[in-house]
Recover the amino acids of this structure.
């Protein structure tokens, strides 16, 4: 890298809230020097080696441009924040540091002679700002994720890319969601791009935005075609639109004669008004897909009475400006929507994309069978059919599943009670509430009606009861307990902590197991890092377990046990693996 | 379900039936028993078509010894498709329950344009060019030539069809829509058009257009072979009188005459050529004509010409008058006729004449007598056959002239000839036209009534029902108008007389261009578009009015505001565009946000497109769709009606306008589960003489409180109505009358008419 340095004005802060110290930041190849304007303040010098990470905030209207450097904990409290005057300056600095960091990593990795993960990391570091923004947004939206990110990525247990690689689906699904909703055309018609007279001279000004141009192309195939034909081979874009606006203006002043004259003079203007063979073909093709019960064109074929009324040639010159035609065309275009997402702005690409989408549209064709199927559906009289006849039913939408299932249980229980002392032995598979409820009902029934007949054999009843109490007591305090009061979690002071630990264990385990089999040293270091982090959590969990009072301890341990077990299993696996490895090496 | 109507077991493809359907079937059955004609009005959305189809097919099934054939006539091709779809539903049900014995053959028949599968032929843009393209490849002489000369193109589909001995072939049982016929034809490599033509004779049910029975030019070849034991159904027959009249009306313009002159000189050349090469052929034709026209029946199917059933049989057997037997003589007579007509077109004033005096003046000036003119149509076609002319679309003009001559020569009353030097609406553009207009609807339909044992005329709007027998001159054995028993008030007609500013609205000639009225109409739509979910349909009185008002809405920005709520589609004179607009309209409604469709009363959309369910929750009828009252033809017809049937002009005009309006608004309801609102936006609807002409099923729901509304009140009512309709309800009808009958209900009922009894 050539000797290069960046000099910018900025604020130095220790925390985000800190008002900061104004000064000048000089970035050099090996170090960063911050010289405050106020000479009484401390001059800051940071060696770039000590920078671990560099974070930055998103661009926004009312946000400061921040750059956060994570340093060795020994230096400067582990972090320092710079606020820049604008984002572009910040980006320059960010780039500078990221280049350095990648170099550093590369050199580190190359020392280890393991180029493969290097490239991985390298590519991961070269994220586009859009992706970066998106990740930031995800983190912002999801508190838990943010916590995990903070805990592992910032502490260096996992790298940024490792963290995100397991959340690919999160990234991708959101991306596709973003794509799914596309902006269509406005439903209001651009009747006329209104000319703005400037008052003094005879000049008028037209304003064409990319959106309007897009719509003009979609709704006026003649203009679209002319554009593709003439621009940029014959005219510049501006010239083309000038001609278009001129024709438009002349027409608006209802100076049809002038339009015609202009059209005669100028092939471009003439082409605006030309009826297009492809349009006719297009509509003919579309006609074939139309529901036969709507097809009025077929009538003409059967109409022997009006044979003499051959359709007079429609005056094409005015066709373009026929309001009815425009209305239909506009509505059809809106209905069709934008075929593919193209960034507006570059007129040529917009025009190209439109013709491409038209080509693509040619291929799709509704099958005849589907058409006929539709006709039969239309023809059938619904309310004469019995409801059980394949009537379409509305899908159930449950807003609160818990409430719904509770309600369903109540129903089910009632049904069981209604079934007049069924002699079937009560299945043990029935879930707790269910059985409990029915038993309660049975008992209350017996109270009212007396014991007419010992329908339930005493031994079975006893067994059920036993099972029930045992089951009930054990599940009562399960994490997903039914009512909040019964939930042990909610009664715990450090609930959040436990939940967080659970999430982090999961995260770590996920990474841990996904690193097996260990094939490269990269995996190996990763695993050892993970094991360290896990043992830390293990200890913390133990701590929680021990900290609670004795009457809680059982339940807490039930809660924590699965996590501990999982961690134990991981440790066990790790140990055997390292032993094997050691053996393999010695052998 | 399966139930008895007297001795007939009716198979009905649904689990329930509306009481009106049952009564409808009962009346229909009695008319069939009596072998007479009947006239039945039943509201739209009560399943007329399926009731009709299932009764007639069941009737025919239960009397296998005297099977009856059903000729079902629809107004349009898309209605034909709908009918066939319902028939297939029924057929599947019947076959499931009865097995093999219920198998029938049902086909739809249309023109070559809709049935042809030969890609080279069907690519023609108009019907006439497709017809000509077909003849060019299938005419007997062309095929004869092709057998020796391989360069002549024939149609392989027809060749295959002909080769397999088409006379003995019968299509497998089933219901064939036009599409099915095409697919079948493609698969087998046979011509679907001729296959369908052949099958018409054998099929149990034939669905085709009105014109195949009513238009003398077509009905001769298509419907000639139908036996008397046919039930003819005219569905959506509220306009049948107009169809009949159109079928016998001809208009001749300058272009027609010029074209005819060209045709004549071309034919003269052909004759000269033929004289030189093959004089024998001309002589053979001459001999044939001496023997009379009846010989024509032996021609091969592809050569058969549209014949003229308007001519009585004795004329057919008569020899063609001697002075037109020779082809060159005939041509010179035609030339004289064309010359005479040209002279008549050069008039400065509007002229109106009866056929008798017109014929007399032709006789005096051109020397063509009435008897000769009667034969022109057939004589021309005989000549064209002899000359082996295949590009028939080129010869349309001379055909028009001959149509005209034959009609003038045949009828002495019920017609008038009107010559106008220019269009009334554009007096500065000379556009002379000579119109032979028929005033008497009974002329065209008479052969149908005479020939077939039962003719059923049915529609949603036949009010006043006593007028139709007079217009069509027949005596129905049953004539009945059904009301609709509703489970809930699912239609909500309103008469809007004032706009939001409380000023009256109307499309009366002196008010229609008033900006206040235009604005009020626009605001009405705008507010309704914001309040009504799904589809809204607006009908205007004419294309020009619609264009005008939509343009003004566009200028003042109302249209933009409307578009904020719903997409707007509009009917144009171009059918292709309109069809696509309709298709898009439906898709927009399917999307959930709804759309608005602007259409024209008496237009193609109003005639046969349903706006049921979410495709139409509100219809706004802007104005009263009167006919253009200054038209000479209409005036002549009114005069004729007054003289012949003692129908007052005003009454007829109102009747005609209101049946159109009712037809437009009736398109919203498809079943009793459906619902919709109808707004009649014109102050004239509040007058009793207009309103009372609406069909009973609309009137019975038109409350007194809804007779004189302003926009804000209408909006309030609409909101209430929509809220009410959104509530769940009992489909079978809860209290009092039942509106949905199950099989048990019908068994309890026995043979009584459900309309007479309370449940």
């Amino acid at each position: 890298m050539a000797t290069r340095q960046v000099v910018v004005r900025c604020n130095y802060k220790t925390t985000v809230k800190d008002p900061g110290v104004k000064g000048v930041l000089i970035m050099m190849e090996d170090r960063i020097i911050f010289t405050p304007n106020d000479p009484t303040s401390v001059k800051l010098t940071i060696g770039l080696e000590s920078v671990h990470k560099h974070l930055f905030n998103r661009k926004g209207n009312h946000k400061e441009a921040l750059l956060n450097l994570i340093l060795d904990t020994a230096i400067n409290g582990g972090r320092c924040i710079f606020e820049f005057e604008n984002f572009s300056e910040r980006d320059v600095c960010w780039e500078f540091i990221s280049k350095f960091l990648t170099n550093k990593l590369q050199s580190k990795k190359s020392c280890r002679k393991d180029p493969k993960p290097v490239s991985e990391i390298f590519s991961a570091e070269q994220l586009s700002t859009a992706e970066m923004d998106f990740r930031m947004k995800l983190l912002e939206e999801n508190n838990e994720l943010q916590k995990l990110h903070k805990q592992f990525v910032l502490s260096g247990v996992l790298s940024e890319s490792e963290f995100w690689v397991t959340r690919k689906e999160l990234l991708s699904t959101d991306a596709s969601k973003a794509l799914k909703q596309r902006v269509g055309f406005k439903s209001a018609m651009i009747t006329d791009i209104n000319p703005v007279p400037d008052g003094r001279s005879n000049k008028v000004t037209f304003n064409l935005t990319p959106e309007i141009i897009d719509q003009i192309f979609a709704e006026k195939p003649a203009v679209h075609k002319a554009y593709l034909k003439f621009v940029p081979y014959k005219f510049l874009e501006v010239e083309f639109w000038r001609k278009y606006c001129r024709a438009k203006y002349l027409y608006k002043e209802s100076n049809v004669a002038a339009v015609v004259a202009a059209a005669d003079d100028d092939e471009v203007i003439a082409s605006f008004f030309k009826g297009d063979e492809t349009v006719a073909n297009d509509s003919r093709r579309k006609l074939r897909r139309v529901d036969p019960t709507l097809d009025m064109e077929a009538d003409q074929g059967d109409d022997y009475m009006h044979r003499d009324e051959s359709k007079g040639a429609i005056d094409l010159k005015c066709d373009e400006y026929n309001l009815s035609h425009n209305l239909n065309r506009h509505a059809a275009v809106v209905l069709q929507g934008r075929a593919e997402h193209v960034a507006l702005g570059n007129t040529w690409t917009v025009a190209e994309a439109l013709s491409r989408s038209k080509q693509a549209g040619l291929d799709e064709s509704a099958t005849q069978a589907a058409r006929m199927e539709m006709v039969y559906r239309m023809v059938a009289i619904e309310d004469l059919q019995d409801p059980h006849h394949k009537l379409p039913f509305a899908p159930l939408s449950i807003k609160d599943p818990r409430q719904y299932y509770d309600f369903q249980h109540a129903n089910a229980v009632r049904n069981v009670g209604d079934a007049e002392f069924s002699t079937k032995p009560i299945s043990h598979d029935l879930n707790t509430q269910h059985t409990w409820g029915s038993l309660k009902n049975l008992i209350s029934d017996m109270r009212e009606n007396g014991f007419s007949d010992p329908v339930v054999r005493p031994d079975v009843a006893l067994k059920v009861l036993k099972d029930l109490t045992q089951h009930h007591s054990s599940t009562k305090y399960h994490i997903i307990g039914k009512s909040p009061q019964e939930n042990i979690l909610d009664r715990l002071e450090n609930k959040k902590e436990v939940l967080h630990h659970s999430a982090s264990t999961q995260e770590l385990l996920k990474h841990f197991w996904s690193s097996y089999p260990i094939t490269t040293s990269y995996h190996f270091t990763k695993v050892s890092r993970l094991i360290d982090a896990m043992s830390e959590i293990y200890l913390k969990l133990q701590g929680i377990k021990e900290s609670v009072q004795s009457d809680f301890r059982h339940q807490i341990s039930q809660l924590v046990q699965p996590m501990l077990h999982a961690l134990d299993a991981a440790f066990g696996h790790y140990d055997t693996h390292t032993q094997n490895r050691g053996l393999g090496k010695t052998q | 379900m399966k139930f008895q109507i007297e001795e007939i077991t009716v198979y009905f493809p649904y689990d329930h039936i509306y009481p009106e359907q049952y009564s409808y079937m009962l009346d229909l059955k009695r008319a069939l028993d009596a072998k007479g004609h009947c006239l039945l009005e039943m509201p739209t959305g009560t399943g007329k078509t399926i009731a009709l189809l299932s009764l007639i097919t069941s009737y025919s099934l239960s009397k296998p010894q005297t099977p009856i054939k059903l000729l079902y006539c629809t107004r349009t091709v898309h209605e034909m498709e709908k009918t066939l779809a319902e028939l297939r539903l029924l057929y599947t049900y019947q076959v499931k329950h009865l097995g093999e014995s219920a198998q029938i053959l049902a086909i739809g028949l249309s023109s070559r344009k809709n049935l042809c599968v030969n890609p080279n032929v069907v690519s023609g843009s108009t019907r006439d060019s497709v017809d000509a393209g077909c003849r060019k490849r299938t005419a007997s002489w062309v095929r004869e030539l092709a057998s020796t000369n391989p360069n002549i193109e024939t149609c392989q589909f027809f060749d295959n069809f002909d080769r397999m001995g088409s006379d003995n072939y019968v299509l497998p049982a089933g219901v064939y829509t036009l599409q099915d016929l095409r697919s079948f034809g493609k698969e087998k490599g046979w011509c679907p058009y001729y296959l369908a033509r052949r099958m018409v004779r054998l099929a149990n049910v034939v669905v085709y257009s009105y014109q195949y029975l009513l238009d003398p030019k077509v009905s001769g070849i298509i419907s000639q072979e139908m036996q008397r034991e046919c039930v003819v159904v005219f569905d959506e027959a509220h306009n049948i009188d107009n169809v009949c009249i159109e079928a016998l009306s001809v208009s001749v313009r300058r272009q027609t005459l010029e074209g005819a002159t060209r045709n004549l000189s071309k034919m003269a050349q052909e004759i000269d050529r033929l004289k030189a090469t093959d004089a024998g052929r001309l002589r053979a034709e001459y001999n044939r004509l001496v023997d009379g026209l009846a010989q024509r029946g032996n021609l091969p199917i592809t050569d058969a010409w549209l014949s003229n059933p308007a001519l009585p049989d004795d004329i057919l057997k008569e020899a063609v008058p001697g002075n037109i037997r020779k082809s060159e003589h005939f041509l010179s007579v035609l030339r004289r006729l064309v010359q005479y007509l040209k002279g008549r077109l050069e008039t400065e004033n509007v002229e109106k004449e009866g056929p008798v005096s017109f014929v007399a003046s032709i006789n005096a000036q051109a020397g063509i007598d009435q008897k000769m003119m009667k034969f022109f149509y057939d004589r021309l076609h005989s000549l064209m056959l002899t000359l082996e002319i295949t590009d028939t679309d080129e010869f349309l003009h001379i055909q028009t002239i001959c149509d005209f001559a034959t009609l003038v020569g045949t009828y002495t009353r019920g017609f008038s000839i009107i010559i106008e030097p220019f269009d009334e609406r554009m007096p500065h553009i000379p556009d002379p036209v000579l119109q032979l207009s028929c005033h008497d609807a009974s002329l065209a339909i008479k052969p149908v009534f005479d020939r077939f044992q039962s003719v059923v005329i049915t529609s949603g709007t036949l009010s006043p029902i006593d007028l139709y027998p007079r217009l069509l001159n027949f005596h129905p054995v049953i004539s009945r108008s059904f009301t609709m028993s509703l489970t809930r008030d699912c239609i909500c007609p309103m008469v809007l007389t004032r706009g939001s500013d409380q000023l009256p609205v109307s499309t009366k000639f002196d008010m229609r261009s008033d900006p206040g009225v235009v604005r009020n109409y626009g605001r009405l739509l705008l507010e309704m578009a914001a309040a009504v979910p799904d589809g809204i349909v607006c009908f205007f009185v004419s294309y020009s009015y619609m264009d005008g008002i939509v343009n003004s809405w566009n200028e003042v920005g109302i249209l933009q505001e409307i578009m904020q709520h719903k997409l707007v589609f509009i009917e144009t004179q171009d059918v292709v565009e309109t069809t696509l607009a309709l298709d898009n309209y439906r898709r927009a409604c399917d999307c959930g946000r709804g759309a608005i469709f602007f259409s024209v009363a008496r237009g193609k959309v109003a005639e046969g497109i349903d706006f049921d369910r979410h495709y139409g929750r509100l219809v706004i009828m802007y104005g009263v769709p009167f006919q253009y009252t200054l038209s000479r033809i209409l005036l002549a017809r009114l005069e004729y009606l007054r003289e012949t049937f003692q129908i007052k002009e005003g009454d007829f005009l109102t009747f005609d306008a209101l049946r159109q309006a009712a037809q437009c608004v009736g398109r919203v309801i498809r079943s009793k589960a459906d619902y919709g609102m109808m707004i009649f936006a014109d102050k004239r609807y509040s007058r009793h003489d207009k309103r009372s002409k609406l069909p009973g099923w609309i009137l019975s729901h038109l409350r007194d409180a809804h007779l004189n509304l302003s926009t804000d009140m209408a909006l309030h009512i609409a909101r209430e109505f929509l809220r009410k309709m959104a509530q769940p309800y009992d489909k079978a009808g809860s209290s009092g009358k039942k509106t949905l009958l199950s099989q048990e209900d019908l068994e309890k009922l026995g043979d009584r008419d459900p309309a007479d009894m309370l449940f």
Observations:
- Confidence is low (pLDDT under 50) at residues 111-125, 307-319, 416-428, 476-486 of chain A.
- The longest strand of chain A covers residues 6-13.
- The two ends of chain A are 45 Å apart (CA to CA).
- Chain A is about 60% helix and 10% strand.
